[in-house]
Amino acid sequence: MPKTTFDDIKRALWAGANTFRDNIDASNYKDYVLSMFFVKYLSDSFDESVKELEKEYSGIRLERQIANLPFFLKREYTFDYLLENQNTPDIGTKISEALIGIESSNTILSGIFRGIDFNSESNLGKKEQKNPILRNLLNDFADLDLHPSNIEVKENQVPADIIGDAYEYMIGEFATMAGKKAGSFFTPQQVSEIMAQIVDPVENDRIYDPTCGSGSLLIRAARKGGFEKVQMYGQEVNSSAISMARMNMFIHGIQDAKIAWGDTLANPQHLDSDGNLMKFDCIVANMPFSKDKWAEGFNPGGEVSADEETKRSSKGKKKEFKMEAGLDRFHRFDMGIPPASKGDWAFLLHMIASMSGNGRVAAVAPHGVLFRGASEGRIRQTIVEKNLIDAVIGLPENIFYGTPIPACIIVFRKGRSNTDVLFIDASKQFMKDRAKNILRDGDIERIVKTYKAYRNGKKAENEKYSHVASLDEIKENDYNLNIPRYVDTFEEEDIVDIDKVNEEIADLNTQIAEIEAEMDKYLKELGLK
Question: For FRET with 46, which of 69, 146, 232, 300 sits at 20 to 30 Å CA-CA?
Answer without folding.
Answer: 232
